[in-house]
Amino acid sequence: MTRDIRIKMCGLTRLKDVDAAADAGAAYIGLNFFARSPRYLTLDAAREIAQAVPEGIAKVSLTVDADNATLDALTETVPLDMLQLHGSESAARVVEIKARYGLPVMKVVGIAEAADLTRLDTYAQVADQLLVDAKPPKGADRPGGNAVSFDWALIAGRRWSLPWMLAGGLTPQNVAEAVCATGARQVDVASGIEQAPGIKDADLMRAFVQAAQG
Ligand SMILES: O=C(O)c1ccccc1NCC(=O)[C@H](O)[C@H](O)COP(=O)(O)O
């Protein structure tokens, strides 16, 4: 029996990645606007990729503590279905962004220890989705996409009143175990489906979906 797991493939940088993600069965694709990321896209490149995404696959922007001018330009240029906030945006800022852009917001919370879990409850009050990711390792130069996992036992059996995704160091080799350990119905992956930073691999994308869905 297969598992009904929805998959977000984050940090697509090429048009051919869109075809590969769609063929593999992604439910969401992520477009990265963090300038220090190997997955960073200019607005024009992001628009071209977003316009190629088939109906039914949600297009998600990823920003880190972006100001209104940045988000204005982004939402005016790129067709989007959801905004992923991957910085230290406050709950009030989440509310403000939801109201200003009229798009669902997914707030990322980095987890390293049990004390980090309370932030999930805070954002569950205001966001449309949660993304439960690993906290970046010390010295990392970006807050996500670092190919590190957290201890899945920390959220085993935890449920929130809104949809949520599991992320952090997921690969075709470990995603089935991660789903079983946490009960996640949605997962997010960046590094684990790449042949090099920012370069997705169609075979790994297919293998990831097969492993996640069983
Ligand atoms: O991918 C990046 O370079 C990145 C940069 C800045 C903030 C977030 C970033 N990626 C976030 C993602 O959505 C990743 O899918 C998530 O953190 C998991 O990444 P990975 O462990 O590489 O699968």
TrEMBL record:
InterPro entries: Aldolase_TIM, PRAI_dom, RibuloseP-bd_barrel, TrpF_fam. Keywords: Amino-acid biosynthesis, Aromatic amino acid biosynthesis, Isomerase, Tryptophan biosynthesis. One of its GO terms (molecular function) is phosphoribosylanthranilate isomerase activity. Its EC number is 5.3.1.24. SUPFAM superfamilies: Ribulose-phoshate binding barrel. Pathway: Amino-acid biosynthesis; L-tryptophan biosynthesis; L-tryptophan from chorismate: step 3/5. The keyword Isomerase applies. PANTHER family: N-(5'-PHOSPHORIBOSYL)ANTHRANILATE ISOMERASE. This is N-(5'-phosphoribosyl)anthranilate isomerase. It comes from Roseovarius pelagicus. The lineage of its organism: Bacteria, Pseudomonadati, Pseudomonadota, Alphaproteobacteria, Rhodobacterales. The gene is trpF.
